[in-house]
Amino acid sequence: xxxxxxAPNPDPTLNAPITPELVDKHGLTPDEYERIKKxxxxxxxxxxxxxxxxxxxxxxxxxxxxxxxxxxxxxxxxEDSRNKVLVKAGEENAGVVDIxxxxxxxxxxxxxxxxxxxxxxxGAATGVGGILRDIFTMGARPALFTNSLRxxxxxxxxxxxxxxxxxxxxxxxxxxxxxxxxxxxxxxDTCYExxxxxxxxxxxxxxxxxxxxxxxxxxxxxxxxxxxxxGRDGLGGAxxxxxxxxxxxxxxxxxxxxxxxxxxxxxxxxxxxxxxxxGLVVGIQDMGAAGLTCSTCETAARGDVGVEIxxxxxxxxxxxxxxxxxxxxxxQERMLVIAKKGREEELEKIFEKWDLHAAKVGLVTEGKDMxxxxxxQVVVRIPAMDLTEEAPLNDPIxxxxxxxxxxxxxxxxxxxxxxxDGIYDALPQLLADPSIANKRWIHRQYDQMVMTNTVxxxxxxxxxxxxLRCGGPDQDKYIAITNDCNSRYCWGDPYEGGKIAVAEAxxxxxxxxxxxxxxxxxxxxGNPNKPESFYMLKECVRGLAExxxxxxxxxxxxxxxxxNEKQDTxxxxxxxxxxxxxxxxxxYITSSTIKKGNExxxxxxxxxxELGCSAFLRVVHQLKTxxxxxxxxxxxxxxxxxxxxxxxxxxxxxxxxxxxxGLLVGLCEMLFAxxxxxGADINFEDLPIDRWDSLFFGESxxxxxxxxxxxxxxxVVHDAERYDIHADxxxxxxxxxxxxxDAPNLEHPIEWDTSSLREIWENAIPSAMKI
Amino acid sequence: MKIAVIQFPGSNCDRDAYHAFxxxxxxxxxxxxxxxxxxxxxxCVVLPGGFSYGDYLRCGAIARFSPxxxxxxxxxxxxxxxxxxxxxxxxxxxxxxxxxxxVRNEGMEFVCESAKLNVEDSMDYFNQGSLGETIDIPIAHGxxxxxxxxxxxxxxxxxxQVLFRYANNPNGSISNIAGIRNKEGNVFGMMPxxxxxxxxxxxxxxxxxxxxxxxxxxxxxxxxx
Lengths: 771, 225
Hints:
The structure holds two protein chains of two kinds.
Chain A: H1 20-25, H2 30-40, H3 46-55, H4 58-61, H5 66-69, E1 85-87, E2 95-100, E3 103-111, H6 113-118, H7 120-136, E4 141-151, H8 157-177, E5 181-188, E6 197-207, E7 222-227, H9 237-240, H10 261-275, E8 281-286, H11 291-303, E9 306-310, H12 323-328, E10 334-339, H13 344-353, E11 357-365, E12 369-374, E13 377-383, H14 384-389, H15 403-408, H16 420-431, H17 440-443, E14 454-456, E15 464-469, E16 476-484, H18 487-492, H19 494-512, E17 515-524, H20 531-551, E18 555-561, E19 565-566, E20 569-570, E21 574-583, E22 600-604, H21 615-621, H22 633-648, E23 652-657, H23 662-671, E24 672-673, E25 676-677, E26 679-683, H24 692-697, E27 704-708, H25 713-722, E28 727-734, E29 738-742, E30 750-753, H26 754-770
Helix pairs in contact in A: 7-8, 7-10, 8-10, 10-13, 19-20, 19-22
Chain B: E1 3-7, H1 14-24, E2 29-33, E3 44-47, H2 67-77, E4 82-85, H3 87-94, E5 101-103, E6 111-119, H4 128-131, E7 134-141, E8 145-147, H5 150-158, E9 162-166, E10 177-181, E11 187-190, H6 206-224
Parallel strand pairs in B: 1-2, 1-3, 3-4, 4-11
Antiparallel strand pairs in B: 5-8, 6-7, 6-9, 9-10, 10-11
């Protein structure tokens, strides 16, 4: 049955007939338009067309990725698990995971790539604001932020401008709302020039009985609009994010929202106070992408009811806005709340306390339509469920790019091995590479300590650690979190690269003393309509999903950012992975830096014979080629079990995953310990050595460096054998500040002054930014 | 002592201060919304850090006109102990309870790190004998650059009103000033956050000494009076 046609719009420009050009301009295909007509049983008007276009954009509907995402496990396989998923991916704004004793965490990562490319400061700031609202909407008090950032090389003035703006934007919003930003990762590569990635994560904490839903229910319950007034900013932002960037993207600047962190903070406090009142809130949803449109139709669809709103009641900060503009605006710091009928006054009083708008704009109705009125006349009538659930699902074509065979066939023997001098020079070169160098320039601008729960922040351990106060003083819990993705591996082998991203995150947690709980991911890829780009997405997701399944780490939510292309360049596939873990006792928290000289250093894992897609090839040989390292999941499972037991036995003083740059870079990162800079005496006597370059700088996976009490080193090695893990005592730390490396066949031992190395590592980014 | 931690719109270290005074020091502590007309018998006032009113106009410039500020000014003028941390320090300067002003950091960027402070011999309990020569206390601010005119600075020095100086000045503050008190010794302001250095998980526990010195000095003053 056709839905009743709305009245003519009070704004005559919105009564224009829908032409194929208009449909195309809204990013909808002719097929999609036919589908819309079928759903409505008639032609849509222009406002309705706009609504369909944002809801059916990739950003809101996942139309090109949804089928792939179904591969992700959404709950724990082990039914007896202590840490069940309470709210699954896709059900609500963010997933929720049990952490025991009636408490839970809620977390999600989301991208703001396109806005940050056009307007770095506002783009990044609103990215933080948006993810913050996703978390407190669930009833959780936010406890931390992390970010994954990707920029072009810092030798480019434009990349420096973008990085400065993005970091300022993140610090501007995050510091003001008073939530610590404790980590994440940052990489630089020419593939991100003009197309930076800004992925922001927020994690909150709540009790099981505080979980709130974004569903409308109870016919007659009032619908409230709370927070900032609506303006014309961010018009159609979700559609903007769902196409490629171009020279004209700057003209899309109105599609970038402006954030107000002060308003964000007030809105958070007011909403948490409101949700703390028993039975007052029926449903709540943030107005993020697609603003009022998305929040209205999604709450109606989830509750399988209708919702009717009157636009004249929506607080507006500009005059003369028509229904199209109000419905598609992405003005920030706004929420939609469905309250319990009869308790309006209680709600309004809370918002009055915080000096915020709380406007009753509509009602939950019978039926299933989302109805929008302006000046009392119906201007939109769409079946809500069809709008959210009937978005077309595409099966894009995937074609394996030809370059993969070519680069994977690269032979390490075509490269001359390093001489002694070459080894001596390569280490400082790698430490000076911005992707490896110290990131203090960034982190110092973030408040990492507010809330006074930060135990380890970026750089002190392989994963950041926060305390969660769960009731009394003896009920503290410790959560670890890490963001990882080596996009170069994904470029060289998307399936293996996807596996590595998850495995590395889990390894980082293990090094910190945590066991993994659940994952969120942000899939940053190119245009899915290009078969070679879609192949990369498909293969990466397969690798991610298999690894999650293997380690029983469910995916509780995330975000997809496609169309990261600009003219001829596209980004390397970047599936950013963030895994959250729990540390069962404070005693188990393990740092990545050594505590004192004379600790024994143990290398876990095999000696590498590979260099494909390594930082070494990129930095020292300016090569981007080769088969990326292989990921042996069984081996890593054993490694993690072993590490957990050793940490619980109190044997491990420091543990550090070997990643970009390989063994010597990883070792330096352990020696650069807070205010102290240690040295080490390393001897590779017992190791079978093929090549110096792969030994010192190869990036074989599943390798960890441990610092243990010298008197216990043999016990640790002995225990490792029982897990079938290769373990070698490679030397000892020292207080002299000299890194001394010897091996049979080296002409003479190589020595570095670690203070000088540290200076190089610490100054690389600050001096690049001073240009 | 009955402690009132004031909550302005945009305060974000209010819970941290509450946790330090109540959770760590076991003082009866309450959060006071800025619209309250009175201090309801509080014996000590803490203005916490944050971004009151989003730092719009100037840091602390709008909070200074919050309804509760009248009571706080009266309370301070009658000798009541007041501690302003970070944004709280900025508000005390705007309210005229402490001299000088805090402006944008010299480097123009927000700075968060643990800062080494040199302790000055200022008054009872706030001296090197009680606190040690140097302490480590976290800072986190974009506008912590302390400014005062020459006469004002001479006054501060003459009356030993400087509590702490940065060992490595992170923001351009004049004479490396990190914290001061009023001449009478009952109003204190500091940019570093002592409430972030009171537990084992924190970068240091030197904040315990600072808060203890504040509480003890004020109890001693009140006993004398």
